[in-house]
Every structure is written in C-alpha cells, then in structure tokens.
Amino acid sequence: MHHAEAHSETDPVAAQVVDHPAVPQGEPELIESHDKLDEFMSHVRSAGSFAFDTEFIGEETFIPNICLVQLATRSRIALIDPHAIDEEALAPVWDAVCDPTLETIVHAGGQDISAAQRRTNRPAQNVIDTQIAAGFMGMPWPTSLANTVQAIADLRLNKGHTFTEWDSRPLSKSQLSYAADDVRYLPLIWQMQRERLDAANRTAWVLSESEESLRTSEAFEPDSHVRRAARGLGLRPRVMTIVRELVILRYSIAQSKNLPPRTVLPDGPLLEIARHKFASTDELAQVRSLPRSTSRDFGNEILRVIEDAKNLPIERDRIWMSPQENADDRTRIDALWSIITMRAISMGIATTLILTRAHLSRWYLGRDSTNAPLFLVGSWREQAIGQWLANFLDGRETLNVGWKDGGPVAP
Looking at residue 163, what is its pLDDT? Predict the structure, then answer.
C-alpha cells in the first residue's frame, strides 16, 4: 500500500480486540523515550515470555533498516520507535530476545531474530515460531499470521498495511493498530497451540525445528543463491562453478558496503559474466545492467575470481550434476513422495516442513552408493517419518490411512 493511501482518512478501522486473559487490551503503548523503554523491558522480564516482531526495510541495505519494534506480553503491548530512540538504547530489547531464560514468540521470525543476533553477537535461544507450530497442526507450510490466528483462535485480523512505508513519520492510527496485531495475539496462539501439541507429544519437535530454522536462516548458503540465479537455465557445470564464486564475491562486497547483494551485482549481469568468462575490465564495462560503480571499483576482483574458478579442480563441478531420473526412477520416486505425503498429512504435519521432492529424489538416486539416511539420525524428522519409512521400505510397515472430515487421518 502506498504511503499516502495508508495515511488517508479512509484507512481501515482496526478490528475489535477479543476479550481474553492472554490478549493485551486497548491501544498499544508507543515508546519514544529511554525511561519508558526501560520500564517496559522490566515488565517483559517479569512476565518471562513475550511476543516479538519488527517492521523493517530490507531492499535498500545489506543490514535491514529497523523502523518499528513490536513487543507484547499477555497483559501489555508496546510499539518502540527506533527513530526516537538511539540504537544503543535498544540494547535491552535485543538482549531479551537472546536471553535463554525468556521465552520469545514470533511468527516467521527469522529476519526479526537475526536483527537481535547481529546486534548482540549471540544466538537467540528459547524462541517459538508459531508458523512452524502451525505446520505440525495440519496447516500448510508456510502459512500467514492472519491464517494462523483464524485457524487456531477463530479470529480475523485486519491486515491493511502490508506494503506501507514504515520509515515515514508520523504513522497513522491504523498503521499502529496493524503493527500491534502482529504480536497482540501471539501469546494466546502459542498457548492454544502448545495445549494441542502437548497432547500429541509434538512440542519437542516444534522447539527443535524453531531452533534449526533460526540457525539456517542466519547462514549464507551460496549454492541456493546459485540455483536461484541460474533459474533452471541448464548452464554447464563449470559455468555454475564460476557463478558460485561470483555469488560469494557479491555477498562479501555487499556486506562491506551495506548494500543489497543484487544491487551490487544483479543476477542477469552475473550470469552473462560467468558465461563469457571475461578477461578484461573493458569487457566488463560493456555488460548491460552491470552497475558502473561495481565495474569500476571491483572489476579486477571479478576478473580474479573468474580466473581462479576456471582453474578449480574439475571435480568441483560435480555438485551441479544431479543424477537423472529415468522413467522407472520417476515412477518409484513419485510413489514414495505420495506415500510420505499421505503419511505426513494423516499425522497433521505439513509435508514440505519435512522435506521436498527434490530432497527425496537426491536421496533415492544416491542411496545405493552413499547408504546415507534420508534424515539426520535423532532428528525430529527421523522420529516422525524416517523410522517408519525405513520399516516401510523393508516390508515391515504398511501405510494405513483413513478419511475423516474431508482429509486423510491415521487409523
């Protein structure tokens, strides 16, 4: 939504707050001073559990610009304005998120948690992601906060400012209401989710996946960026290797300049450079859509990376050469994918939270040579599906699924 529209007189009116002991009532507290922030953080620590979210702009810088911080306990809700409070004064917020003695509740909170970890240089612990919890309760993965709140608590959120310009001031009443609702219901939702998860012995799985998800969201994985940039174009393995080395260089430059990686070196020019293996800065300067500042300031580094990648051992290219499925393989993998999907759905777990078909295919095609398990031994995935699947493939287990209330269920 455009900023002007977000501030118009026709802004949507916030939905009435549900009256519940776990839902903070009334307007959110707008915190614009150090004293108010210190007092609220004392309240958070005494509560022992709190919901956390941020509104940020991540398209313009490598480190997202935090524009608003939302916190809620079962009794109070606050919106903290970083424009009014200096960065150092926000330290108690980031410390609370990374304090293992406090329970932090988020929804799809990877980037929000990253902000705290980056500022404290400590890992966040004891974090609950209600989006992940929803995936263990028969909901699709991933699913939005609004859909989660509606499915779990039968409440409808007003979500009118998803694309608002959070760095502009003043924020309208409906913008503040929207931001408050991002955390207002999380304590209630987690309470309701936990009751059901405890009954199904799934809580430990949710805690494990929340921790794993936060850990992987922080990591820079160049191979996934390479595949996204290549867009299934069928590039030669050596070209893919050069793309990988350029992706790593791009990330390093972006981090040092606090710029988004694709601003430093967009995917299109990156692929063109990798394909042609340019050897001079003059050639780089002719690449369409390559930022002139990148060509000028980092052209020699780009050429060095290309030359180094060209001379890497040829074995390095093999990571891009996935085994091909023949007709028989495809039939069997499709069958296994359907079986795992039915088993997962009957257990109330989103299949894509467990694995993807590509993951299954790579395991199936390489199982004879590697003898590697499909899932890490001892992981929740192995407990939920892996042990059963191993028995199923050995003929010691069968798939028994019934149908109830419009969906498959385990008997």
Answer: 62
- Higher-scoring residue by pLDDT: 42, 406: 42
Residue reference for tokens 């959070």: 166
Q: Are strands 77-80 and 29-31 parallel, antiparallel or unpaired?
A: parallel
Lowest model confidence (mean pLDDT) among 75-89, 142-156, 226-240, 266-280: 226-240
**CATH number at 222-320:** 1.10.150.80
In the chain, where are the structural domains located? 3-218, 222-320, 327-409
Sign of CA dihedral 100, 103, 108, 114: negative
Taking the C-alpha atoms of residue 212 and residue 204, their distance in angstroms, rounded to an integer, is 12
Please tell me if the domain spanning 3-218 has the same topology as the one spanning 327-409. no
Does CATH place domain 327-409 in 1.10.150?
Answer: yes
Class assignment of domain 3-218? Answer: alpha beta
Task: Read off the pLDDT of each residue in 377-383 and give the average, rounded to a whole number.
Answer: 96
Segment (H or E) for 237: helix 237-257
**pLDDT tens, 284-316?**
999 989 999 999 999 999 999 999 999 888 777
Length of the chain counted residue by residue = 411
**What integer best gives the mean pLDDT of the chain?**
90
What one-character DSSP code corresponds to residue 128? E
Q: Are 300 and 224 in contact (CB under 8 A)?
A: no
Q: What is the pLDDT of residues 48-88, one digit of tens each?
A: 999 999 999 888 899 999 999 999 999 999 999 999 998 88
Angle between helices 222-230 and 267-276 (to 10 degrees): 90
User: For residue 115, what are its two tokens?
Assistant: 């902000």
User: Three-state DSSP class for 122?
Assistant: coil
Neighbours of 140 (CB within 10 A): 13
Flag the least confident range among 25-34, 214-223, 377-386: 214-223
Q: 344-349: long-range contacts (C-beta < 8 A, 24 or more apart)?
A: 344/384, 344/385, 345/138, 345/407, 345/408, 346/401, 346/402, 346/408, 346/409, 346/410, 347/384, 347/410, 348/136, 348/137, 348/138, 348/200, 349/135, 349/136, 349/138, 349/384
What is the C-alpha to C-alpha distance for residues 357 and 98, in angstroms, rounded to an integer? 34
Q: Tokens in use for 262? A: 């694709």
